[in-house]
Design brief:
By secondary structure, the chain is of the alpha+beta class. It has a single domain, classed as Alpha-Beta Plaits (2-Layer Sandwich). The chain has six helices and six strands. The radius of gyration is 18 Å and the shape is globular. Helix 2 packs antiparallel against helix 4.
Length: 198
């Protein structure tokens, strides 16, 4: 069962815009799309997302994130026909007995451990493996290569994003990811496009 993020209880730090380290505590709005935006996970019927078995796999993998990343709290989340939206909150940790790495050691390639990139990579990998096992298509690509992330800096945007995620199935006909989109999604424009231009 999900635990909603409470900024007072979880002591979220303010986010720096320049040189931001994506292992830092804070809330992140994440969108992950399927490869070529193919609708794999079910369908929206009467404003309600109805998951098929592949969508259920994605849902299970998402809610398992804290089992693998103990410093993460999950907030609002939805699986849509060809993408997922969710809020991942990285919590402050105070590791006891940590040691500094030798400056002569070469950092391994790939995303930094415990970062948003490593968390998203983990869910994409786990879900793709299970989906391909289910379909009998080992190694077939499921997700697009990248993902969208937005650092959430305070409570008002956090609440708007929660609303956007929770009501996403109701607005599927306007969704930017819907191949049959019938018009612009005013809520998306209000939250992201207009604020960037102001």
């Amino acid at each position: 069962m999900k635990t909603q993020f409470d900024p007072d209880r979880h002591h979220r730090r303010s986010i720096r815009l320049k040189g931001y380290d994506y292992t830092q505590p804070g809330a992140y709005f994440i969108t992950i799309c399927t490869r070529d935006r193919v609708c794999l996970f079910g369908e929206v019927i009467d404003g309600e997302m109805r998951l098929n078995p592949l969508g259920e796999i994605v849902r299970q993998c998402w809610w398992a994130i804290p089992e693998h990343f103990s410093h993460v709290v999950l907030d609002e989340f939805v699986v849509m026909p060809n993408h997922v939206h969710g809020i991942i909150v990285i919590m402050a940790t105070h590791d006891v007995g940590a040691t500094h790495a030798s400056p002569l050691r070469v950092r391994p390639r790939g995303p930094q451990r415990q970062s948003i990139a490593s968390i998203v990579g983990s869910i994409k990998s786990a879900a793709a493996k299970r989906i391909n096992e289910y379909r009998g298509t080992p190694g077939a690509p499921v997700w697009q290569r990248n993902y969208y992330e937005h650092v959430v800096r305070d409570d008002q945007p956090l609440n708007h994003i929660r609303e956007y995620i929770a009501t996403n199935p109701l607005r599927w006909h306007l969704d930017r990811e819907n191949p049959l989109q019938t018009g612009p999604d005013d809520l998306w424009e209000k939250m992201f496009c207009r604020r960037k231009n102001s």
